[in-house]
Specification:
With 286 residues, the chain is α/β, with parallel strands linked by helices. It has helices at residues 16-26, 45-59, 78-81, 103-113, 136-140, 142-149, 160-163, 170-178, 182-202, 210-219, 272-283, and strands at residues 6-12, 31-38, 66-68, 117-120, 154-157, 167-169, 206-208, 224-233, 243-246, 264-270. It has two domains: 1-115 and 167-208, Alpha-Beta Complex (Inosine-uridine Nucleoside N-ribohydrolase, Chain A); 117-166 and 209-271, Ribonucleoside hydrolase-like (Inosine-uridine Nucleoside N-ribohydrolase, Chain A, Alpha-Beta Complex), CATH 3.90.245.10. One of its GO terms (molecular function) is purine nucleosidase activity.
Length: 286
């Protein structure tokens, strides 16, 4: 009897590493992608929706619905992935359209149908990508992040402290150029902007595999080790977006905002060689 596939919704703001993660998960036989939801981040929401629809067309999976977030457009970081989010390649507009349901409505409906876990991308104990305190996703809406962390949901947080252990090198990228395969050829076109940013920002000859690592950890949690504790998010001030982990090893007498809250799992280490191999295998059709 075949195992039941895990159903996944990807909340995304494509994004070169988002593109890689989407392609990786679409070639992962253990899971079924039941939708993409789009929001602002690397680009504004409207462009994120366009990019998501475009990526599904590239993958030949236009059967997967795309639902768009409604609401404010806050700060974006288009200098990392290009003004279009996909390496400044000026791809033609997709033929598809987002569904009428908002992303929030779609997520709630699907969550009620298929109870599961929540995967978050943030940081613990390292300087971050938005500023020294905050990871971009958490910085964008720290209040919402704090609600999720303390909601009692089954959360696995895979942050920058762990994904920075996973690097796609220049030599790895060269393999895409040599492979006559749809995803490999596509990525060979868009990756230069991402590599250039990493050379300037991190002085490294390679790129960190943020979203591919997170999505693979959701499929196979054995790829990471994790600790468990209570996480709160700083919502104001100079440390807005800072995530703080309380491991429960010290007992406090007073009742505070940290009392009686649910714990979550936080990734600590990653089996980086296995993650890189899985990414290359999926993206090159091995």
């Amino acid at each position: 009897m075949a195992a039941t596939k895990k159903k996944i919704i990807i909340d995304t703001d494509p994004g070169i590493d988002d593109a890689m993660a989407i392609f990786v998960v679409l070639r992962s036989p253990q899971v079924e992608v039941i939708g993409l939801t789009t929001t602002y981040g690397k680009v504004y929401t409207t462009l994120a929706t366009r990019d998501a629809l475009h990526l599904l067309e590239v993958a030949g999976r236009t059967d997967i619905p795309v639902a768009e977030r409604k609401g404010a457009k806050l700060r974006i970081v288009d200098f990392v992935h290009g003004a279009d989010g996909l390496g400044n390649q000026k791809f033609p507009p997709p033929k598809g359209k987002p569904i009428e349901q908002s992303a929030a409505t779609f997520l709630i409906k699907q969550a009620n149908l298929y109870l599961g876990n929540v995967l978050l991308d943030e940081t613990f104990s390292v300087n971050d990508d938005m500023n020294p305190a905050a990871e971009a996703n958490i910085f964008g809406n720290p209040d919402a992040a704090d609600i999720v962390f303390t909601s009692g949901a089954d959360v696995l947080a895979v942050g920058i402290n762990s994904v920075h252990q996973v690097v796609l090198t220049d030599a790895d990228r060269d393999k895409f150029f040599l492979k006559v395969e749809r995803f490999a050829q596509y990525l060979s076109r868009i990756l230069e902007v991402y590599f250039s940013y990493h050379r300037e920002a991190y002085l490294t000859r390679g790129v960190y595999l943020h979203d591919p690592t997170a999505i693979l950890a959701s499929i196979n949690p054995s790829l990471v080790t994790f600790t468990e504790g209570l996480v709160r998010v700083q919502t104001t001030g100079i440390t807005r977006g800072l995530t703080i982990l309380y491991n429960g090893q010290k007992r406090f007498g007073e009742h505070t905002e940290w009392s009686d809250k649910s714990t979550v799992k936080v990734a600590v280490t990653v089996d980086a060689p296995s993650v890189v191999k899985l990414v290359l295998d999926r993206l090159m059709g091995s």
